[in-house]
Automatic annotation (TrEMBL):
InterPro entries: HAD-like_sf, HAD_sf, PGPase. Its cofactor is Mg(2+). The keyword Lyase does not apply. Belongs to the archaeal SPP-like hydrolase family. Keywords: Carbohydrate metabolism, Hydrolase, Magnesium, Metal-binding. GO terms for molecular function: magnesium ion binding; phosphoglycolate phosphatase activity. Gene3D superfamilies: 3.90.1070.10, HAD superfamily/HAD-like. Catalyzes the dephosphorylation of 2-phosphoglycolate. It catalyses: 2-phosphoglycolate + H2O = glycolate + phosphate. Mg(2+) binds at residues 9, 11, 173, 177. This is Phosphoglycolate phosphatase.
Length: 227
């Protein structure tokens, strides 16, 4: 099997521990012959800037699949569900001192600074029958629509490209990458990945962060899985 494209997470996968971009990965992306699609929990403007500066496709997955961009200067596909996320945020704010992140840029999720006990947040939204999911990526806490994730985003992107989700090699590090790694033809987790990402992946690199992403790409190239 030769994969037709690569879908890669940003934070913790192509960055160093402090969220700075690993420049060796950026260089490697430019050398690959297949398209590289970024897939992230960050808002669209953030991932578009990253993609532009690396020099790869403007077709990206943002907000954990809530926003799929068809290109730098073309429309985005934006999921519903923000209202429910805001309602959950209002409810949770009665119990916790919460700080929203990137609120001005977000279209489908409410994102919070980490530091609280996420299991308590989950229990409260569950007890109130709210149709939202609360996840902690290790970088931020996301209140999101449970039906949307990077896996559904990958299917949308694959459709736009005229290929299948299984034509992708996926690389990630966190729980928000799990569905994407399962839907892809092969999911590789970097060495620093959390338990959920490790379980979803078919392979885990020895190296962590950007070094791990490089190891995954080198593995694919040397086994004729990628061109
Ligand atoms: O937005 C987050 O919490 C993490 O971002 P990522 O999906 O690029 O790792
Ligand atoms: Mg990540």
């Amino acid at each position: 099997m030769v994969f037709k494209a690569l879908v890669v997470d940003i934070d913790g996968t192509i960055t160093n521990h402090d969220r700075t971009l690993d420049l060796r990965v950026a260089k490697k992306f430019r050398e690959l012959r297949v398209p590289v699609i970024l897939s992230t929990g960050n808002p669209l403007c953030y991932v578009h800037a990253v993609a532009r500066l690396i020099g790869i496709s403007g077709m990206v997955i943002a907000e954990n699949g809530g926003v799929v961009s068809t290109g730098f200067d073309s429309p985005s596909i934006i999921a519903d569900g923000m209202e429910e996320c805001e309602e959950a945020y209002e409810l949770l704010s009665r119990y916790f001192d919460l700080e929203k992140l990137d609120a001005a840029y977000r279209k489908t999720e409410v994102v919070l600074r980490r530091g609280m006990d996420v299991t308590q947040l989950r229990r409260i939204v569950e007890d109130n029958g709210m149709d939202v999911e609360v996840i902690d990526t290790g970088y931020a806490v996301h209140i999101k629509d449970g039906k949307i994730n990077k896996g559904t985003g990958l299917h949308t992107v694959a459709g736009l490209m005229g290929i299948q989700a299984s034509d992708f090699l996926a690389i990630g590090d966190s729980c928000n990458d799990a569905q994407m790694m399962r839907e892809a033809g092969l999911g590789i987790a970097v060495g620093n990945a959390d338990d959920e990402a490790r379980q979803a992946a078919s392979m885990i690199t020895e190296a962590s962060f950007g070094e791990g992403a490089l190891e995954a790409i080198e593995y694919a190239l040397s086994n004729d899985l990628l061109e």
